[in-house]
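Q: Convert this sequence to structure tokens.
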Amino acid sequence: MFLLRLLLKNAFRHRLRTLLTMVGLVVAISAFGLLRTIVDAWYAGVDATSSTRLITRSAISLTFPLPLNYAERIRAVEGVSGISWANWFGGIYITERNFFAQFAVDPPSYLALYPEFKLTDAEKQAFFRDRQGAVVGRKLAAKFGWKLGDTVTLRGTIYSGNWRFTIRGIYQGADAKTDEQQMFIHWQLLADSVRARLGNKADFVGVYIARIHDPNQAPQVSQRIDALFANSLAETLTETEKAFQLSFVSMSEAILLAVRAVSFIIILIIMAVMANTMTMTARERLAEYATLKALGFRPGFVVKLLFGESLLIALIGGGLGIALTFPLAEAFVKAAGTLFPIFRVSELTVALQVLAALVVGGVSAAWPAWKMSRIDIVQGLRHVA
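A:
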């Protein structure tokens, strides 16, 4: 307790300097946490994937559709236990800023493959019966104030016209990793509309989702599916759901690397600032440390004083920075709209923030502590006023 009081007294002997150092730490640690959370948000879709789902798409490009009749052939592949399909709808709700994922799906088979989307039986049946019905995520409904029975109008971009949907279900995610900002509509409604305008071009889907018995057999099952359609007019590329999601993340890999780099550069900068602060502190107390050694205190005691003071400042500043990260994250996600469906400060991020604060405190005190432990008593006492 005596040592703690001594450390607090020493730390705040020059209050302005200490407070400015702490402000720098608060900014650095909170910025580090926010940038880490942004990176985590990019990978949120990857973390939410299932090892028992495969995605089959066109081998040429995701924008090329696949024939509907592929469904039964994929279902018959050894190792496949379920099949469904989906199309990206790409509608606009009021303004382009209100972006959120919208998929046209085959409701019974799709929801069977995605048990993490929790709906009541009544909501499921209402959605199945109403071809103009829609299911939306809890967070999406809360954002726009939607309730069951509300009518939502989307302006089509890929499929032209104004589309009106009635909300028949609001799903909740099975856990925090589940995206609750999606909208699902009937694929058949989309197909009928396309058929009325383009004839037989309606019987195409964007991707197939296949459920498999054994995740360890994913490579073999993928090869079997792709072999079915080799040398056809619509060859396929089948991969795990995780690999499919990672292909989107990889498009932004350079940006993510830059964000990571900036987060660590911020820590290095504040480390340099705090090291300068501790060096100034040590020089000012040169005579005090020499006096302590003259009184018989071992060099280790001086080292403890400097390390303790540095770690105390780092932990106080780091703690405030961690506390500030949460309201900053909330403000950021509100400003970003629906760009990040899953945005939360993870336990790992908080642990890294604590570690960063400790590293800053420890490294900043290392050089001055080493120098002061080797101080010559006579030279040190010459600094006494």
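The mean pLDDT is 82.
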